[in-house]
Predict the 3D structure of the following.
Amino acid sequence: MKVLRILSRISVFCFAALLTFGLTGMRPIPKKIYKVLIIDGQNNHRNMTEGSATMKGYLEETKLFAVDIVTTPKKGENMESFKPDFNQYDVVLSNYNGNPWSKETNDAFEKFVKNGGGLVVVHAADNSFPKWEAYNKMIGIGGWEGRNEKSGPYLYFDDSKGKIVKDTTVGIGGSHGNQHEFIVKTRDASHPIMKGLPAEWLHQKDELYDRLRGPAENVTVLATAYSPVEQRGSGRNEPMLMTLQYGKGKIFHTTLGHENYSQKCIGFITTLQRGTEWVASGKVKQAVPTNFPTAAKGSARP
């Protein structure tokens, strides 16, 4: 009888332990929330402030990101006071195109990305810092602000060769024709950001950046768009979406998003969300929305 009582007590203990720990273990594991810092404050685009708020909303609606916005001093003001603590974040999203930062801030930013911090570069952010070597390596290619053949080669998809080429031809860095709708063509369907997206999709009215140039190192071109001569374009298949590596840090570079109506495109929103997740984690778990644009029909939020 004594043995039976002992076995009975052991059974009760095991059952209680199962209830306590087993059921707890069945609770869903909460998603990792990545911290993102959007930088703005200077930009030659009038929608800068609204654009930052819009992108913050796009990221936070995924429930994957907690987003802060930091604003630099105004153009011409002392930049020494701009010293964000990058190490408090997983990702920095640049919506900035303006005066150089201080050397202290530059060094801190370089260290952040080199040590594994993520970077997202949106549209005119690739106009910034033409003389900052590390930044230009991070973005791969950029435009304007005196960029030319000394900045590095052009980068585009050559149909005749069936591949991305680097072109060292003498010329300006950065231009665009008339704003218009255009087809974005996937070039790397296997990349996590692009997986499941259509081979081609119609983007909303936007500036189509062309003739960008720079170091063009460690660049993977995810998607291109043809810049038509009749729209004052280059007549080439220009990079629209890119990824890069700088040290341990991952970078997602989108040239899309000039105006508010451009940023309402479901294609812009989806690739921004997926690109930010990828630089933060190296993976993309977000599903492609059912209303993603096709080659025949665009799709945008109201």
About this structure: Residues 1-26 have pLDDT under 50 and may be disordered. The domain at 31-281 is CATH 3.40.50.880 (Rossmann fold).
